[in-house]
Amino acid sequence: MGFIESIKERAKQNKKKIVLPESMDRRTWEAVEQILKEGIADIVVLGTPEEVEKNSQGLAVSQAEVIDPHTAPELESYVEKLVELRKAKGMTPEEAKRLLTTDYMYYACMMVKTGAADGVVSGACHSTANTLRPSLQIIKTKPGTKLVSAFFMMVVPNCTYGESGTFLFADSGLEQNPDPEKLAAIAITSAESFELLVQKQAKVAMLSHSTKGSAKHADVDKVVEATRIAKELRPDILLDGELQTDAAIVPSVAASKAPGSPLAGEANVLVFPDLDAGNIGYKLVQRLAKAEAYGPITQGIAAPVNDLSRGCCAEDIVGVVAITAVQASAIEQ
After folding, report:
1. What gap in Å lies between CA 91 and CA 115, rounded to an integer?
2. How many domains does the chain have?
């Protein structure tokens, strides 16, 4: 069973309620039809009757719960709650109502905050900032979390590297230029995310253009220091660096370039030195290797709120909804 099929089966075993705030996008409704057909999750779609009718025509989506934030009975209580949460920032009832009825992501996050839903997936037609800003303002970070970061689950066809072609790429969606402490935190939370989703041991490579001192540069020093910090904080995680990508994932190259590396060229979690490298890397693999790319999946928020690439297809949305449901199930444990 492949990665996403396994995730779907786990989601079906403990169905969660996931909110999709982008009723104005046809891909959302195509995904809803498939999610309902497969029984992956209970779905709430936010939108006006006009948005729903226009974009869902011809699709079997009648089993989805549709909420119009403008007329929802919970609106006034959500207004009060949002004012309370953001009063230190000068939030007024008028502004709260405007946000909840014009930016559906605010309404979706309020549903999760109040326990009316378990997670949110958005971003098909909105930026990452539009998706994550409301979640950080309303749901906030998980206790003890140093930062929120994002990753992609990459499933490469006909690939023997990684975990039978499955990799986690981080940070590929959020943290622009992490310092060593942040990079170490990304590595640690990415290892935890990989083990939750793939149910296999994480093998974490801290990537660089250098392998074990082959190049000298401040950028290399950052990765070396991040590796030291991560190992010190979590000696139980199988992690090594700094490594070039081939030394991280190809056993024969690892034997030559990094003899003695505990990863031995079998890394399945690739931690990039900055967002440029991570974002470029995942899109190259997605397009050139025809890999499935699910994300950006966030880690560090108190409840699962996940982003989508604006270039996603309906099948991508289905996969991210299933991942979100599995993350939500893990929170209750």
Report:
1. 22
2. 2
List, for residues 7-27, the tens digit of each pLDDT value. 999 999 999 999 999 999 899
Residues 6+ apart with CB under 8 A from 173: 128, 150, 151, 152, 275, 278, 279, 295, 296, 307
- Residues 230, 260, single domain; the answer is yes
Element (H, E) at 114: none
Helix (H) or strand (E) holding 83, with range, is helix 75-85
**Residue-number span of the structural domain to which 126 is assigned:** 3-140+312-332
Residues 277, 181 share a domain? yes
Work out the burial of residue 141: count CB atoms within 10 Å of its CB; fewer than 13 is exposed, 13-18 middle, 19 or more buried.
middle
Statement to judge: residues 9 and 83 lie in one domain: yes
Q: How far apart are CA 297 and CA 133, in angstroms?
A: 15
Task: Give a yes or no: residue 165 inside a domain.
Answer: yes
Q: Which tokens in the block code for residue 256?
A: 């030559």
Q: Can you tell me the distance from the alpha carbon of 116 to that of 305, in angstroms, rounded to the nearest whole number?
A: 14
Q: Which of 252, 272, 288 is the last residue of a domain?
A: 288
pLDDT digits (tens, 9 = 90+) for 122-174: 988 887 778 888 998 899 888 888 789 999 999 999 999 999 999 999 998 88
